[in-house]
From TrEMBL:
Organism: Amycolatopsis minnesotensis
Lineage, uppermost ranks: Bacteria, Bacillati, Actinomycetota, Actinomycetes, Pseudonocardiales
Protein name: NAD(P)/FAD-dependent oxidoreductase
Entry superkingdom: Bacteria
Family assignment from sequence similarity: Belongs to the FAD-binding monooxygenase family.
Sorted UniProt keywords: FAD, Flavoprotein, Oxidoreductase
Length: 497
């Protein structure tokens, strides 16, 4: 089952060259990032297993109207594959997906990708991982890298009567483009980043549009602006300018949002002040403003960036429903105040299971211990990239990665560079298996928990950031600290064979 361009498998680490065979699970942003770095470093014996038939992960799966990235496009790119052609400061989803498809070809990654290959099981046999796919195929790898993404498994709420609806109903990440929307009664449930973008796009299209809000969210008014053809042409011929604009956006994101989230200071109070005054200015109607005023602090939930949402909810043909949902009926949504809100189309913008990580894939490590067993009390890893008991296994965007209002691509690059450093040691014959110690992992997790109280995520709200124990599954320090912690492997934190 070798894809073209991949040498046939040599059992275990090749003792002559020491070059390990690597399996990456997932050809989304992080998997592509890892694959590109492997190629750049001359590791050619790797396979990317992708369960779908195209790369792109969340950007492939999400195609809802209004989809765009709320991290500046010049920074939401691989640092090694700048895209001077971004058409807007915040790139539309379809454009990001085209960027990943194009990058996968231009970086020579596609021959390494095995599409429609869903890994269902991976087990460490003492020397390597044995992999099983959904279609019954098997494979081996010395090093296994999970790049399975974080917002992958759509979450549809268990609302009574959900199966009785007569119209079209779908999750935002499974948009049914065959369903007409113009002039239709559309109900959107959920006011996270997704619900806000869909509402902004469908206002004036649906008639009426009903938005069901359980908890209001703070909004930062960042307008989506086009890049002129002239500026795109200028950047196309100026690689230095591309690098400069990447660094400039990186610095702004890290210095403002990176710090605001993890430590009290002017950044946090500044973001909060902008959100509060924007709400006051954009929504003059007191009753509507009261409905839109969140009970928690800005950034406690992931901050929403939109200059289009408040104008959308002010429209006469958009109805913000704040009464609780009692049940779904064949013709619409019944709220707890007894009203029936008729709908032709029902959209669940209700988020994802952000705690699934690589599950439902079953991973077995040393002594037959599964990841489900190891993570019974919640996902725990060593510095976001490795898990005790699972040798030669790495996670990209693993537990407690610095996610939130930041470029996940930059984070994946830091982690991929770190993995590469271990692979280089293997290639140099310095190790054939490595696994973080439980002590180093516990020490890291204790420090992480100790730092959580200064973060904004613990200021009293519910969000997908929180684990089952109520502790945020995020990085409580700045992205710069993440880079520092992963700058070089610390051998003392690992058992190396
Ligand atoms: O999901 P969410 P999302 N009845 O979990 C509501 C990324 N993203 O898809 O707040 C009624 O944030 C729920 O209400 P509440 C980004 O990381 C990025 O919007 O729990 N409502 C909430 O309003 C983002 O954070 C971009 O009370 C129910 C909503 O559904 C992440 O994806 C764009 C409900 C879920 O919000 C997830 O965002 C879009 C129920 N039973 C998304 N159950 C970029 O631009 C849930 N809700 C990069």
């Amino acid at each position: 089952m070798e894809p073209a361009g991949v040498s046939s498998y040599r059992e275990g680490v090749d003792m002559v060259t020491g070059t390990p065979r690597v399996a990456i699970v997932g050809a989304g942003m992080a998997g592509l990032c890892m694959a590109a770095k492997l190629r750049q470093a001359g590791f050619d014996d790797f396979v990317v297993h992708e369960r779908a038939d195209e790369v792109g992960g969340t950007w492939r799966d999400n195609t809802y109207p209004g989809l765009s990235c709320d991290v500046p496009a010049r920074f939401y790119s691989f640092s090694f594959a700048p895209n001077p052609g971004w058409t807007r400061n915040f790139a539309p989803g379809a454009e990001i997906q085209r960027y990943f498809v194009r990058s996968s070809a231009e970086l020579g990654l596609r021959p390494h990708i095995r599409f429609r290959s869903a890994i269902t099981e991976a087990g460490w046999d003492g020397r390597r991982y044995r992999l099983h796919t959904a279609d019954g195929a098997t494979d081996h790898a010395d090093v296994l890298i999970a790049a399975t993404g974080i917002l992958r498994e759509p979450k549809t709420p268990d609302i009574p009567g959900i199966g009785t609806f007569d119209g079209a109903a779908f999750h935002s990440a499974r948009w049914d483009h065959s369903v007409p929307l113009r002039g239709k009664k559309v109900a959107v449930i959920g006011t996270g980043s997704t619900g806000v973008q869909i509402t902004s796009a469908l206002a004036g299209v649906a008639a009426p549009l009903k938005l069901f809000q359980r908890t209001p969210q703070w909004i930062l008014p960042l307008p989506r602006l086009p890049y002129s053809a002239a500026s795109r042409a200028a950047l196309a011929n100026a690689p230095k300018l591309n690098r400069l604009s990447y660094r400039a956006y990186q610095t702004i994101m890290e210095q403002i949002f990176g710090k605001a989230a993890v430590e009290p200071g002017w950044q946090r109070s500044g973001v909060a002040a902008v959100c509060r005054s924007y709400l006051r200015m954009a929504i003059p109607d007191r009753r509507l403003r009261a409905k839109l005023t969140p009970p928690d602090d800005p950034m406690c939930k992931r901050l929403i960036m939109s200059a289009a949402f408040y104008p959308a909810v002010r429209r006469d043909d958009v109805d913000l429903v704040t009464a609780g949902i009692e049940r779904i009926e064949p013709t619409g949504i019944r709220t707890t105040d007894g009203r029936l809100h008729e709908a032709d189309v029902l959209v669940f913008a209700t988020g994802f299971d952000a705690h699934a990580f690589l599950r439902p894939m079953e991973l077995t490590g040393e002594d037959g211990r599964t990841l489900d067993e190891a993570w019974r009390d919640g996902p725990r890893g060593y510095r976001t990239v490795a898990v005790p008991g699972f040798p030669n296994f790495f996670t990209l965007i693993g537990p407690h990665s610095p996610i939130g209002n930041h470029s996940l691509i930059a984070i994946a690059e830091t982690q991929a560079d770190y993995v590469l450093r271990w692979l280089e040691r293997m290639r140099a014959g310095e190790a054939s298996s490595i696994v973080p110690t439980a002590e180093a992992t516990d020490e890291f997790n204790a420090a992480l928990r100790g730092a959580m109280p200064s973060t904004v995520w613990t200021t009293g709200c519910d969000s997908w950031y929180l684990g089952a124990d109520g502790v945020p599954e995020l990085w409580p320090w700045t992205p710069a600290v993440h880079r520092d912690m992963l700058a070089e492997p610390v051998p003392a934190h690992f058992r190396i064979a």
